[in-house]
Structure formats: C-alpha cells, structure tokens
Write a structure and sequence with these properties.
With about 100 residues, the chain is an alpha+beta fold. About 35% of the residues lie in helices and about 15% in strands. It contains four helices and three strands; from the N terminus they run H-E-E-E-H-H-H. Strands 1-2-3 form a three-stranded antiparallel β-sheet. The protein is globular, with a radius of gyration of 15 Å.
Length: about 100
C-alpha cells in the first residue's frame, strides 16, 4: 500500500514524467513481451513493465515461482539482451531531457 498518494496537478505531472516520459516500447526478442524503456545514460536503464508483459514473460514467471521468489533486482536476461540490441541499433535515445 502506498504511503503517499499524490493529489496536486504538479506532483501528478512530475510522477508521470518520471515514470512515463520518453519511454520507448521494446519487445523481447524471445517471448515478445513489450516493456517501456528509457536510457538516461549508458549505465542507467529504466524499464516499466505492464501487467500484460509480466504475464507474457516466461522467465519472470519461472523466477517468481521459485520457493523464495525472486530478488527485486533480478530480471529477464533475454529482455536485457533485447534492450541492449535496441540501444545499439539507435532505437532508444540516450540521455535525460529536462531531468527525465
């Protein structure tokens, strides 16, 4: 449960910019799950998973099904490879704009 729920228009716009601005749709080259991606730098990648993408990714489902679940930072290596390929191909712009 969220401890803070933004209500002011300015805060809601900041939240939208932080979570949605400049997202590029990238499909996993294996399962075709589509996530939103932005790269603020070479080493900083933000990934927004939709509920549909989480359901479609067999790797996340396999990891989530382990007895201890998955570590919060653990993701799908096939999706990471897909994002790296999209970045190399120039489909994901590199660098933040206006702090986002």
């Amino acid at each position: 449960m969220a401890s803070f729920v933004p209500t002011s228009e300015e805060t809601l716009e900041d939240q939208r910019l932080y979570t949605q601005a400049r997202l590029v749709d990238v499909a996993c080259l294996d399962c075709l799950a589509v996530v939103g991606v932005k790269k603020n730098s070479e080493h900083h990648t933000s990934i927004q998973w939709s509920e549909t993408a989480r359901r479609e990714c067999p790797e996340l489902n396999r990891i989530d099904g382990r007895p201890n679940g998955r570590a919060i930072h653990e993701g799908c290596p096939r999706l990471v490879a897909s994002i790296e390929a999209a970045s190399r191909d120039g489909r994901i712009p590199l660098g933040a704009e206006d702090g986002y």
